[in-house]
Design a protein that fits this description.
The protein has 16 helices and three strands. Strand 1 and strand 2 (15-22) form a beta hairpin. It starts with a strand and ends with a helix. 76% of the residues lie in helices and 6% in strands. Helix 3 runs antiparallel to helix 8, helix 8 runs antiparallel to helix 9 (205-238) and helix 11 (258-279) runs antiparallel to helix 12 (284-291). Strands 2-1-3 form a three-stranded antiparallel beta sheet.
């Protein structure tokens, strides 16, 4: 079976574009003819072009599409469909052309003799997904594994959505306020100054400060912009160095409120991935190797790698993870109980659930406090600029009287 990209005309003469899977170009044209489509152009999607698209990163499912793909795969296989039939049905139901190509490529690899895990790996799916699917295929529990993976990705997306919501709204308010202040300083203040220059009176000290700031921004705006660009580019270049990232991550973890929150986010991501892998019958050491890739902060990743070595030598995972002072003590206690009771996989999922709920509560409180604080701050800034403009006007009115 091959994938063809076609351009055709329907009965009304409208141009139709799409993709179709068939054994040959002739078979593809016959299928389109049955749909009352007149083919104008048809090309086969070769393996070379697929590899080129995979290399460029364009042929890849995002997190939302991956979650939908796994959920549909679990539903269709549970309904009694064979794997190839389920993949074909999913490919037809995908909305975007990129998604259809990815699923069609997975189906083609399976038809050629590859396992589903190997086909997913060829399409650049995450290592945790490929390993869990491989374990599901070996144990005959592919449906259950797909359900667990869909839940894992859904929980991860929810946590990312909470983080985005907590930072996006304050950033919008702050950015809008800065734009308003810059507009007042660059446009409004110079026009008012030109009026004040003809009066010859003494300006208030607040007005003088605002005028000086306005002149500085207008005269040095290009240099300030270039300095900002150089600063951002230099910081991004510096973050390529591991010791700089280590210093930054250590600084984040040492902050009073931010440090514990980041540690909980990292622990939730690590615990859910490890718990899902262990529940999917992935060997412990392999599961730890994959889960340790979920640490974004280098100091915590070092602790995770050391914990993996400790488990390899027969040590306790809970005790090895409890080395860093920012590691939540509750996670250590729950994992210790899980190790002693032989239900570490279930306890890890509970750890992830607990910390995700805790992080969600903290972020909601932050939004509740940040909104009025930012509004008050921007009101004070804009009010100060307005006062600096209105004070000389009031003095001019007194002179006129």
């Amino acid at each position: 079976m091959s994938l063809f990209v076609y351009e055709a005309l329907d009965r009304k003469g409208k141009k139709q574009k799409g993709e179709i899977e068939a054994a040959s170009e002739r078979a593809a044209r016959q299928l389109l003819k049955k749909r009352d489509l007149v083919v104008r152009r048809m090309t086969v999607v070769t393996e070379k072009s697929r590899r080129a698209e995979r290399t460029s990163g364009s042929l890849k499912l995002n997190a939302s599409e991956t979650s939908i793909f796994l959920e549909q795969l679990a539903t269709l296989t549970a309904a009694g469909m064979t794997l190839t039939e389920a993949l074909g049905s999913i490919a037809e139901s995908m909305e975007g052309k990129r998604g259809r190509r990815v699923v069609a490529a997975i189906r083609q690899s399976v038809l050629e003799g590859s396992s589903l895990a190997q086909a997913l790996q060829q399409q650049q799916f995450e290592e945790v997904i490929c390993n869990m699917v491989a374990a599901g295929e070996e144990t005959g529990q592919l449906e259950a594994v797909a359900v667990r993976l869909s839940e894992l990705l859904t929980q991860r997306q929810q946590l990312q959505q909470d983080l985005l919501s907590a930072t996006l709204y304050p950033a919008i308010i702050l950015g809008f306020g800065i734009v308003v202040m810059l507009f007042l300083l660059a446009v409004v203040v110079p026009q008012v100054v030109s009026v004040f220059e003809h009066t010859g009176g003494e300006l208030p000290w607040l007005t003088k400060m605002v005028i000086a700031l306005s002149e500085f921004l207008r005269d040095k705006s290009i240099y300030l912009f270039l300095a900002l660009v150089v600063l951002v580019a230099g910081w991004r270049f510096a973050l390529r160095m591991e010791h700089i990232r280590w210093w930054r991550d250590q600084l984040y973890l040492s902050m009073p409120l931010l440090g514990p929150l980041l540690a909980k986010i990292e622990m939730a991501r690590f615990a859910r991935t490890l718990g899902m892998l262990m529940a999917g019958n992935v060997p412990v050491l392999a599961a730890l190797h994959i889960a340790n890739q979920n640490w974004n902060l280098l100091p915590l990743r070092k602790v995770g790698l050391a914990a993996g070595e400790s488990v390899r030598e027969g040590g306790s995972l809970a005790q090895a993870l409890n080395v860093h002072p920012r590691m939540p003590h509750l996670a250590y206690s729950m994992m210790d109980v899980g190790e002693k009771s032989g239900s570490l996989d279930k306890m890890l999922v509970r750890v992830a659930d607990h910390f995700e709920r805790d992080v969600s509560r903290v972020l909601k409180r932050f939004l509740t406090v940040a909104e009025p604080v930012l509004v008050l701050f921007m009101a004070l800034c804009v009010g100060t600029l307005a006062l600096a403009i209105l004070l000389p006007i009031a003095e001019m009115n007194e002179l006129v009287r």
